[in-house]
Structures are given as structure tokens and as C-alpha cells.
Inverse folding.
């Protein structure tokens, strides 16, 4: 449905302040935008850009410790910043609705989905309870939830993450609002699930002619969803334009760097000799948590100086494989060789030197660094522990490592993790792994918690270090853009099995195993028509044959990737 | 008449401490450099009140010999003398100076309570951390033993044990320390459990670190804030328990001055409308409130550090 010319939301000179240690700091420095009826505006930017804060302010709401300090938010002729709490409460849920990033955390686990659905319409007097129930089933059907007649009678924990996000969208729609704010609704989902949610949200918005503000950090997603895009940087609007125009012709430098992030590629590395001893080698590894089997006959090699990307959805056994290699989860059967030798399966029985060989970098640098230790201790401990260096020698090594990860030693050596940014924390994680002088590093989703620009910096650093020290990487990720950037070989896992493996070039060229194909085709592309095309293809029985994974999908069914 | 005096004294004590707290806060903020000033300025007045009160108690306890007008145990005259010139707060049931005994009792009661709490923490926290970090059967055995100890009402259990082991100060300290360490164990274990699942603990284990390092360097620094806060609360409970035991005659034995037993010894005066026996109770109440103010502030700070 084409947007009408009638303005629904008019934001002028919006400034928002946040409270930090008894002082008010401005976090949004004057934002203007208009939203017409039925229009979808994409807000895009890195974390800390103020996307969510602006999204919430569009409902006249600020989080605790924030306040709107200047500007106006006019919704359908009503000034929200000056309206009474009562007037705003009447609007919320009925005329303006909000869909949060984590549906799992936003639903009340003690009530059935349909009860939570009915709450807003009944409360606002839009519908009677019985009517709301019928309506819910109808919306569940439109959003293509399985078993729409009975899914509402389940509790939040009884449905999957993607279904929950759609149920939440349905809930937001329950009063047929004029405006819905979507705050990163698909960020926490796997790519294959993300497609379903994106398609459902778009259909629903179109069917009811709802205006929406779509907040995300993923350009490719916003390209599918929004009519217009606004780029934000640290609380300032950078650029605003129609989606197609912005994609084709970004004006500002910052916007261009956002676009360019995905183009990083490592240089191709020489193929290892056939008789080379791999840094790590898995042979028919089978593992289980108690009596629940999680890995079946997993075999692959990682050669020195090369990167193997292990990809798959959550629950596919990627991280479990890493736990087997490090010895946290001794396999039930099969063998793991590190540098041609088989260490004890349990890490507790491994020697210091065996432990030193395989290091790990974690996804969440926040939980991987002890918040009470200074960088000097965080990185210094492995130096002292493994290499026996003390005093001056240790200090020198420490400074060399900090220089290696491109952090100024004098400035950083005595800081606590809380005094670092996300990217800097991840660099410390890298330095800690490097301090052990290992042969092999497991990188467990090391970039997924980071903004794209920062993530790219981390990937470049890892690549530099690999070249310098000839390290072998096992790169666990669900992000295929990262795989394209850094991998030499790819291992695709599903339900604890390796479904396909081979050099990167092969993996990104058809024909594929059906599951690889599903994964590849689900990665959003910058082309605004990508989602339409993909859905059409899947409807035609192409790559979407996810229900029948045995069927080898025709290569032609894949979306064309303009970036390749 | 006496009752009015008593109320006046109580109010005066609280007002004095509050004003003192305000003055100290202003003074400290004024004389300190910018960087530290922030902490001093954001600290609430209640915390200053608590700190000042505790400091006063500690000073009185340490310098009891200098502060007290009369010796702790000497019988100086008639029993139950009213408040007056010679004996500011009168004399007790044996004719000993009430004020001096109050002051010496600060040393005895607070000192013993402090040692007991420290011992309880040493025992409970080390066992709790060990249980959380090692897990498995060590955790099972520790936790079940603690469950058994906790299943018996604390005061009754303490009475029972003290009747068995006698009522020397050493046995009072040990019995209460062991009984209170069960609560500390529970807390330490629960807090440490949340830390043990963190990736940095896994990283330390995979590095090959021993148990000692993991407990002392990786876990302990992350649980000190709640443990210190608990120390304050626990101190109050121990303190009240000792007073209760003394009141019942099983705690600190006469002629040693102690606030709990002082209430009991002079209880008869209440019948005559004399509030003197409430003075030791007031001393207990004031210290408890002060400690809780400080604990509240520390809890607030430690939770504020997380975000």
C-alpha cells in the first residue's frame, strides 16, 4: 500500500538527555522527521546512536533516567511531549504499539499468548474478550504462524523464538494501531527464521496500512522493510532519503563506510600440502550432554595458517564442537588431534603445554574478561603462567602484545574492562589468547556482538595476526558475511552433523546441499527487491524446500548476490 | 520525670549524630580534591550518620578505660540510685555505675560480636566459595550438612549447644560463629554460582589454573560487595543474638558488663516507671540502625557498579 500524503507523526528538534551520575548528558541532539500514514521509516546506526531512544520518544515515552529536553513529537495533531500521562496511556497499545527486540524477554512467561494479546484491546475498550480471541486467531493466521487456532493457548516458552516474535507483532497489531515501532525485531534470530519474521511483519504492515518505525543496525534488513531510511550517528541524523536512492547513491561519508563494511576479504592462502600435519584434526567425534546426543561423527581438519569457518543455526552443534576440542566436553567416541597428537579428552588431565596450544576467544567480551582485573593482570597472567616470564620480561611482552592489538600500552595497561568499548574488550580477549603463544585459536562468534565497523576492525586484526604467527583459526559464526570475509574453508553443520564442507570458493558456488542453500539464500542482501524475489522463488518450490532437506535445490533458485 | 529525661536523651543522641553527619559531610566535601569529591557528595546523609555512629561506638569501646568515670565491676554505693550528680545514669541492681557499665559493655558486646561475625564469615564464605567452584559431591555434602544445621531453630540450637559446652566466652563465640556461618555459606554459594558460570572462569579453567587461584583471584573479587554488605547485616544479628543469650543468662556471664544482661539485671526498674533498663536496649538499637544505614548504602553502590 502506497503511503498517503497525510502526516501521521511529526518530530521537530527532538533532544533527549540521559542521566549519568547525577548529571544530564544529551544523547540525542536534535532530530527532525515526518512519517506519513502507511509509511515505513528505517532508523539505522551503530549501538549508542540513539535509535531505540528516538523510537520510544515517538510514543512520547523515555526510559528511566532519560528525559525529552527539547523539541516536539506530534502524533496525529496531538503534542505528545506535553500531553498528560493519562492521554498518552490511552494512545499506547491502541494507536501506537511497540515490538521489542527480545520477544522472549518481553512476554510475561506466566500467561498464555492469547491472554496477553487480548489485554490491550479489552483494556482500551476496542473489543470484547471473545471478539479479541477470534481476532487473535485471524491475525496469527495472517502472520503465518503454525496452528493458528491453538498456538495462542500456549505459554511463551512453548513456542520458538521466531514464532514468538511473530506473536508479538500480532499483539502489537491487536488494536489496529496507526503506528508500530519495531525495535530490532529480528536481531536475535537465526537467518533462516529471520526471513519468516520479516515477511510476516511486512505483510501485516501492508495489509493494515500501518505506519512503522523500523529500528535496526542491519542495512540489508532495512533495505527490505523501509520506504525511507534515516542514518544516525551518536544522536545526530546523518542522512535521510528514500531507501532505493540511499542504497544506490549514499551522500555522506559515514553512510558510505557503513555500506563498504561488507567488502573486506582476506587474501587467498596457499593450499596446504597433502601430507601436512593439521593443527587440529577431528575424526568421527560424537558427543552428548548426558543422554542427549549433540554431535554425530564430526570430522574435519584445520591446517596451520588457515581459517575454517563453522556455520549453522543456533543449536547446530558449533559451540559444542569447540567444547570438545578444548576438553570441556569429552567426546563419547572419536578422536581429536592437536598438532598430530591426541591430548587427553578431559581438559583437567591435559598438561600446561597442551592447554597452551589451543586458546579461545569468546563471543561476549563482557563475560569473558574478569571485571575486577586490570588489563595488566588479564593479559599478564597467561604470560606468567605459560611462559614463566616475570617482572621486566613480562612487562615488555605485555606491552608488545598491546601494541600488537593496536591499543596504546601506556594508556590502556592499567584500565579495567568497564573502561573499554566493546571492540577494545574483544581486542583484549584476542591479546589474552595470543599471550599463550598458541598454534590454534577458537573464535566463538567473536564479532556478532559488535557493530559492523568495529567487527570489521576485529576481523582485520585477526587476519594480520594469523599471517604474522601462522595461526590456525576455527571461526564459529552464523553470519555468512563474516564467512565470506575471513574463511578459507567452510564447514556447514546442522543438528550436530556436518552437512557439507570444502574450500570457501566451492561453498559459495552452486550446487549446494539443500541446507547450505537455505542458509545462503536467507542472508539478506542490500537489494530492496531481494525479499520479494526470494519469497516468490520459495513459493514456487525452489530454495524454500526447507521442509524437505533431502531435495537438492536447483542452483538457479538462489538469489543473485550483487556483491559477489 | 525520668521518662522525659530518657526520651530527651534519646532524641538528643539521634539529633546530635544527624547534625554531626551533616557537618562531617560538608567538611569532607569542602576539604577534598575534585576527583574524590564526587563519591563524598553522592553518599547519602544516612550513610554518614551510620559511619559516624559506628565510629563513636568503636572509639568508646577502645578508650573505655579513659572515658568511663568508674571501673566496670566495682560496687560503689546503694542499688538503683536515680540519675544524678555522682552517677549520671544512676546505679544498677548491685550498686555499680550504670554509665561506666554501658561504656564497658560497648567493648564487650561489640568486640565479641565482631570477632564472632568475622569467624562466621571466614568459615561460611570459604566453604560457600569452595562448594560453588568445585561443585559435584563437595557441594552436595557441604550443602546438606548446612541444611541440617539450618533446620533447627537458631536460638534453640544455640541454647542447646551452650548448655552442652558451657558458657565461657570462647564457646559463645564458637557456637554462634558456626551457627551463623550457615547463613553466610548460603549467600556466598549463591553469589559465587552466578560468577562461576561466566566465561572468564571457563577461560581460567582452560588455562589450567588451580582451585586456589580461581577462588581467590577470579571469584572472590566479584563477590566481595554482597559479602561485605551481608557482613554488616550479619553483625547486627550476631549482636542481637548475643544480647538475647545474655538476657537469657547463657551468653556473656556476670560480672562482665554486656548490654543484653544489663537489660535483664535491671528489668525490675521498669515496674517503677524508670526507663534506665532501656538504655542498653537503646544502645543496641542505635548501633543496629547505624549499621543498616551503612549496609544499605554499600548495597546501593555495589548494585550501581554493575551498570
Amino acid at each position: 500500500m502506497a503511503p498517503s500524503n497525510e502526516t501521521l507523526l511529526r518530530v521537530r528538534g527532538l533532544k533527549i538527555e540521559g542521566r549519568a551520575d547525577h548529571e544530564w548528558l544529551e544523547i540525542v541532539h536534535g532530530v527532525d522527521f515526518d512519517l506519513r500514514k502507511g509509511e515505513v521509516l528505517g532508523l539505522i546506526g551503530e549501538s549508542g546512536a540513539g535509535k531505540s531512544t528516538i523510537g520510544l520518544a515517538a510514543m512520547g515515552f523515555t526510559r528511566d533516567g532519560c528525559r525529552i529536553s527539547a523539541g516536539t513529537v506530534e502524533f496525529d495533531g496531538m503534542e505528545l511531549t506535553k500531553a498528560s500521562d493519562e492521554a498518552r496511556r490511552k494512545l499506547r497499545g491502541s494507536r501506537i504499539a511497540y515490538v521489542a527486540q527480545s520477544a522472549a524477554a518481553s512476554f510475561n512467561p506466566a500467561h498464555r499468548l492469547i491472554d496477553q494479546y487480548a489485554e490491550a484491546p479489552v483494556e482500551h475498550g476496542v473489543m470484547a474478550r471473545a471478539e479479541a480471541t477470534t481476532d487473535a486467531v485471524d491475525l496469527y493466521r495472517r502472520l503465518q504462524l503454525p496452528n493458528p487456532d491453538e498456538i495462542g493457548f500456549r505459554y511463551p516458552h512453548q513456542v520458538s523464538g521466531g514464532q514468538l516474535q511473530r506473536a508479538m507483532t500480532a499483539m502489537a497489531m491487536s488494536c489496529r494501531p496507526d503506528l508500530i515501532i519495531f525495535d530490532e525485531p529480528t536481531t536475535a534470530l537465526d537467518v533462516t527464521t529471520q526471513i519468516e519474521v520479516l515477511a510476516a511483519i511486512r505483510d501485516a504492515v501492508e495489509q493494515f496500512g500501518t505506519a512503522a518505525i523500523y529500528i535496526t543496525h542491519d542495512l540489508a534488513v532495512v533495505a527490505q522493510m523501509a520506504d525511507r531510511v534515516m542514518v544516525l550517528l551518536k544522536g545526530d541524523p546523518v542522512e535521510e532519503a528514500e531507501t532505493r536512492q540511499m542504497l544506490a547513491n549514499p551522500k555522506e561519508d559515514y553512510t558510505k563506510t557503513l555500506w563498504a563494511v561488507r567488502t573486506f576479504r582476506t587474501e587467498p592462502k596457499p593450499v596446504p600440502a597433502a601430507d601436512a600435519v593439521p593443527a587440529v584434526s577431528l575424526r568421527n567425534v560424537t558427543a552428548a550432554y548426558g543422554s542427549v546426543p549433540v554431535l554425530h561423527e564430526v570430522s574435519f581438519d584445520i591446517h596451520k595458517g588457515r581459517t575454517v569457518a563453522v556455520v549453522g543455526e543456533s543449536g547446530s552443534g558449533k559451540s559444542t564442537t569447540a567444547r570438545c576440542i578444548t576438553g570441556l566436553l569429552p567426546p563419547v567416541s572419536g578422536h581429536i588431534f592437536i598438532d598430530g597428537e591426541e591430548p587427553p579428552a578431559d581438559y583437567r588431565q591435559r598438561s600446561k603445554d597442551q592447554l597452551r596450544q589451543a586458546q579461545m576467544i569468546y563471543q561476549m567480551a563482557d563475560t569473558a574478561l574478569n571485571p575486577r582485573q586490570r588489563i595488566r593482570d588479564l593479559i599478564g597472567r597467561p604470560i606468567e603462567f605459560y611462559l614463566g616470564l616475570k617482572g621486566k620480561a613480562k612487562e615488555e611482552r605485555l606491552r608488545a602484545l598491546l601494541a600488537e592489538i593496536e591499543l596504546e600500552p601506556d594508556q590502556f595497561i592499567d584500565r579495567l574492562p568497564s573502561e573499554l568499548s566493546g571492540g577494545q574488550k574483544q581486542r583484549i580477549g584476542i591479546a589474552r589468547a595470543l599471550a599463550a603463544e598458541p598454534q590454534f585459536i577458537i573464535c566463538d562468534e567473536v564479532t556478532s556482538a559488535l557493530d559492523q565497523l568495529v567487527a570489521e576492525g576485529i576481523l582485520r586484526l585477526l587476519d594480520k595476526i594469523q599471517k604474522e604467527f601462522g595461526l590456525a583459526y576455527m571461526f564459529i559464526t552464523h553470519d555468512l558475511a563474516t564467512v565470506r570475509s575471513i574463511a578459507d574453508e567452510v564447514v556447514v553443520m546442522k543438528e550436530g552433523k556436518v552437512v557439507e564442507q570444502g574450500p570457501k570458493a566451492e561453498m559459495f558456488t552452486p550446487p549446494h546441499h539443500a541446507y547450505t542453500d537455505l542458509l545462503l539464500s536467507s542472508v539478506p542482501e542490500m537489494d530492496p527487491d531481494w525479499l520479494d524475489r526470494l519469497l516468490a522463488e520459495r513459493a514456487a518450490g525452489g530454495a524454500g524446500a526447507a521442509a524437505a532437506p533431502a531435495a537438492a535445490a536447483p542452483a538457479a533458485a538462489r538469489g543473485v548476490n550483487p556483491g559477489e | 520525670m525520668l521518662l522525659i529525661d530518657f526520651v530527651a536523651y534519646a532524641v538528643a543522641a539521634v539529633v546530635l549524630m544527624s547534625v554531626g553527619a551533616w557537618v562531617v559531610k560538608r567538611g569532607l566535601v569542602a576539604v577534598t580534591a575534585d576527583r574524590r569529591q564526587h563519591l563524598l557528595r553522592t553518599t547519602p546523609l544516612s550513610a554518614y550518620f551510620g559511619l559516624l555512629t559506628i565510629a563513636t561506638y568503636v572509639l568508646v569501646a577502645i578508650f573505655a578505660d579513659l572515658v568511663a568515670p568508674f571501673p566496670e565491676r566495682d560496687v560503689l554505693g546503694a542499688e538503683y540510685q536515680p540519675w544524678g550528680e555522682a552517677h549520671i545514669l544512676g546505679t544498677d541492681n548491685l550498686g555499680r555505675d550504670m554509665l561506666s557499665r554501658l561504656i564497658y559493655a560497648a567493648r564487650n558486646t561489640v568486640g565479641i560480636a565482631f570477632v564472632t561475625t568475622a569467624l562466621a564469615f571466614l568459615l561460611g564464605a570459604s566453604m560457600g566459595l569452595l562448594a560453588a567452584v568445585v561443585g559435584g559431591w563437595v557441594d552436595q555434602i557441604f550443602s546438606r550438612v548446612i541444611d541440617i544445621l539450618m533446620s533447627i531453630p537458631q536460638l534453640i540450637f544455640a541454647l542447646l549447644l551452650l548448655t552442652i559446652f558451657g558458657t565461657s566466652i570462647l564457646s559463645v563465640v564458637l557456637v554462634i560463629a558456626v551457627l551463623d556461618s550457615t547463613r553466610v555459606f548460603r549467600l556466598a554459594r549463591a553469589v559465587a554460582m552466578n560468577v562461576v558460570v561466566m566465561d572468564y572462569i571457563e577461560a581460567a579453567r582452560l588455562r589450567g589454573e588451580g582451585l586456589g587461584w580461581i577462588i581467590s583471584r577470579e571469584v572472590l573479587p566479584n563477590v566481595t560487595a554482597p559479602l561485605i554488605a551481608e557482613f554488616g547485616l550479619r553483625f547486627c544479628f550476631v549482636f542481637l543474638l548475643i544480647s538475647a543469650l545474655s538476657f537469657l543468662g547463657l551468653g556473656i556471664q556476670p560480672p562482665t558488663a554486656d548490654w543484653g544482661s544489663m537489660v535483664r539485671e535491671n528489668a525490675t526498674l521498669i515496674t517503677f516507671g524508670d526507663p534506665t533498663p532501656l538504655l542498653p536496649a537503646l544502645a543496641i538499637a542505635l548501633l543496629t540502625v547505624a549499621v543498616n544505614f551503612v549496609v544499605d548504602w554499600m548495597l546501593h553502590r555495589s548494585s550501581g557498579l554493575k551498570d
Notes: The interface with chain B takes residues 21-22, 326-328, 347, 350, 352, 355, 360, 362, 364, 367-373, 381-382, 385-386, 432, 436 of chain A (CB under 8 Å). The radius of gyration of chain A is 25 Å.
